[in-house]
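FAQ
Q: What does a multi-component entry look like?
A: The components come first, one per line:
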Amino acid sequence: MIELSNVHKSFGSKQILRGVDLNVARGESLVIIGGSGTGKSVTLKCVLGLIMPDQGVIKVDGEDVTQTGDRDAFLAKFGMLFQGGALFDSIPVWQNVAFRLLRGTLKRPRSEAREIAIEKLRRVGLSPDVADQLPAELSGGMQKRVGLARAIAADPEIIFFDEPTTGLDPIMAGVINDLIREIVVEMGATAMTITHDMTSVRAISDTVAMLHGGKIRWSGPVTEMDSGEDPYLQQFITGSADGPIETLR
Amino acid sequence: MNPGVITRPLAVLGRASLGALAGLGRLVIFALATVRHMVTPPFYSREFMSALLNVGYLSLPVVGLTAFFTGGALALQIYSGGARFSAEAVVPQIVAIGMVRELGPVLVGLMIAARVTASVAAEIATMKVTEQIDALVTLSTHPMKYLTVPRVLAGLLTVPLLVGIGDIIGIYGGWLVSTQSLGFNPASYMQNTVNFLQPIDVLSSLAKGAVFGFIATLMGCYYGMQSGRGAQGVGAATKSSVVAAAILILAANFLLTQAFFSI
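Then the predicted structure of the entire assembly, as tokens:
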């Protein structure tokens, strides 16, 4: 469903992606792991068309993302949970969740959009009481849940999760991991997650790809990850300071 | 002699010039894109109403107070200056022309630059830093249509009204000072003011307001969208937006004054 071939991206003289090749099948949950600054977020943003790759081809459902005719329809396939939530501060929680349903091609009547928002909030474990609060009034964990509710509000085919557990305590991280897994299975959505939290990887993924040096260093089913012989992968999953990955970056 | 001694300063000058021209080009492209998005759907009416409130209505107190004190001070200055050649009687006329043609629009423009440009730039820059702009795009919403167009349109429409109100309050400030402490007759002061002002004075004032409103809100949006990372990026964007808006407003004021009143 999502294909990346030989994707390159540089910012000024800094080369971030140096030929990324990746395939994600429909309904698959892929987790991209890798150290900070290895280009995980850039990869996701290239698929969404937020950043244009310098070279290479990215296809979603066989359609080149740089040549989508109807951008609105293309983006309607996606839901995204941002690292910091990226909730809109100036509008209440329910309008954040129902943002896509209040405007554009998926516009619904306001009362219906609110009902859907409350249902999605309930799905991520939040009570309807939070619907009228502003995002700044919520804790970090609740903001992540609202972000998750917004990502699934329009029942997207593809969901991206950018560091879904960063900044959360271990229990809340576990709750978010379980929610992501349940929701992805329940919706039958294709999921791409980027993280360096190995607990998330084991909880969320069907397949794992490790990004290092601007390329996919290793990829395979999560069940084969621990037995993978790649020294970079082993150093990453064991969190060892000794190994081929430079610790000073 | 080392040829670098001559070429190095030229290279520095060249780089600075190219950088400035590139910046100007980006700003012009941004302004043209804003105008294009203003006339093509979709339009976000709720955001526009909210911008009308923030840019227009909530700026009334600062505009009113600025105009009132300026009008009063202007009356005192003209009276004491005019006394040097026995021309104290021209206070109503000079206050009127000074407020309507120059001080009203310029001071309102600068106050809007301080209040609105800064807040728009800080808000949009923070949205950029916290990935809210990226989130807008993933939610099929064009950031220029959702953030820039409502604010710039609100600036274009409400700042002329603010200038009109500022002109009236400024004249009132001058009237109050003149009648309470300078011994002018209230009715004849007002009569002189109304008789002296011509339609072109008011028209130029409102036209300046529209241009200054466009500049002030556009600069806030432009620098907000161009913001760098982190708190430093937001601070730099806010500072640059206010400086650019103030300078452009003063430059535009000169050009508009020349266009309206050059003989």
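Q: Is there any commentary attached?
A: Sometimes. For this entry: The two ends of chain B are 54 Å apart (CA to CA).
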